[in-house]
Amino acid sequence: MTRRFPLVYGTLLAVSALGIALALAQIFLVAPEERVMGAVQKIFYIHVPLAAVTFLAVFVLLVGALGYLTTGRPVWDRLAVAACEVGWVFCTLVLITGPIWAKPAWGVWWTWEAKITTTLVLWLLLAGIVVARGYATTPEQAARVGAVLGVVAALDVPIVYKAVDWWRGQHPIVFGPGRGDPLAPGMGRALLLSMLAVTVLFSALVVLRMRLAALEEALAAAEDAAGRSW
Amino acid sequence: MSFLRAASAIAGKDLRIEGRTFRTAASTGLFALVVLVVFAFAFDLDTVRRLGAPRVVPGVLWVTLSFASIVGLTRAFEIERQRDALTALALAPVDRGAVFAGKGLASLAVLLALELVLVPLTLIFFDATDTVSLGALALVLLLHTVGLAELGTLFGAVASRLGRGEALLAILLLPAATPLLLSAVQCTKGALAGDPLSENARWMLVTAGCDVLYFLVALLVFESVLEEG
């Protein structure tokens, strides 16, 4: 990882930059304007991929947390902390882009609908993990706390979704059985490109954060050794 | 030592301490009462009567209970922090899951005792005694308090290990307990309106499922929580 890092990270960053440029061109220059909502609908191409990647981050967090709890190897913790923090940033962006779309489309900035509420609860759960880790006195304690809370948070998210769904409902269902292909051809391509670009960007940031975690561990170990020899 | 014996020994120890000092019951009960009175100022009785008690009281009750449980569950681990008793507990040659089960059981008992006083008071303060079905309400309270005690014990141990109290427990527990709290309010609404339990069977089943899931997850991860350093 250490030697290959610049290559891996550089490649991912270049691909995501290219992907974002292509996706933006597709979104604003090629994809047809939506008949009813007009230009506002363009944020859909950003919002949906961000949301999808946020929930991908939760899955990665679960994998990292379970990996750390079973093996105790730091690399799994690095994966978990990276997924948690980068996912939290993406989750924030989802919560910002959503209302910008919701106000013109639904007439309200916010509604307590299942997907939105779940995203907000997820944001709180991830924030809780970040805050709790910050209180830890040793890297091992931070890793254990992060893993325990990560497992609970990740398992909780689908239950939260189902519970809020029963409690309330009303997200636009764009994809679903029996709805055919709801998007004009240019729209589908824009969404797909954006999805790929955002996913690669997420991977790049995760790799970067994992690298940072590894450097932090190395620094702590070096300081520890220096402190002991003095 | 078998799992059950270890768990009941730990729960017994906690309840014995509580029985001699009443410190958790006193602080938690008083706190709950204060929150309830604040709610009574926020929603006057006319408003409650106009909306119908079953629409207002479940929210009041569960916000009060969940806030009070944060105070109670923090105390449950505070007693272990004196003279670093938690480390001694972690050293005990028993399954770590049994430590979780014991602490959880004691907290559950304290919360149920609190409810025994708080729930009748809430019903009286908010004039919600007319249509209530007490059997259904008892079952609803039990089922949801179990889940709250489980999550609260797990997160309470985390907060205690990190040297933080109520503030950290609150930000960890309340979001994670979202499904429990939603379900609790729905089911309590039904019980207060006197509806048969079967109308909320779906919620009750999910809560029972959550209770089992949280228990199993906590059994698996509690070892990592107890570990020191």
Topology:
The complex is a heterodimer of chains A (230) and B (229).
Chain A: H1 5-30, H2 44-71, H3 74-106, H4 114-135, H5 139-167, H6 185-229
Helix pairs in contact in A: 1-6, 2-3, 2-5, 2-6, 3-4, 3-5, 3-6, 4-5
Chain B: H1 3-21, H2 23-42, H3 45-51, H4 53-81, H5 85-91, H6 96-125, H7 134-161, H8 166-176, H9 178-193, H10 201-226
Helix pairs in contact in B: 1-6, 2-4, 2-6, 3-4, 4-5, 4-6, 4-7, 4-8, 4-9, 6-7, 6-10, 7-8, 7-9, 7-10, 9-10
Note the total helix count of chain A. Answer: 6
Give the CA-CA distance, first to last residue of chain A: 31 Å
Beta content of chain B comes to: under 5%
According to DSSP, the number of beta strands of chain B is 0
Low-pLDDT residue intervals, each spanning 5 or more residues of chain B: none
- What does the oligomeric state look like here? heterodimer
Overview of the structural elements:
The complex is a heterodimer of chains A (230) and B (229). By secondary structure, chain A is mostly helical. Helix content of chain A is 80%, strand content 0%. Chain A has a domain of 159 residues. Chain A starts with a helix and ends with a helix. Chain B is mostly helical and 229 residues long. Chain B has one domain. Chain B is globular and about 55 Å long. Chains A and B meet through helix 4 and helix 5 of A and helix 7, helix 8, helix 9 and helix 10 of B.
Main attributes?
heterodimer, A: 230 residues, mainly alpha, 6 helices, globular, B: 229 residues, 10 helices
Could you give a quick summary of the protein structure above?
With 230 residues, chain A is mostly helical.
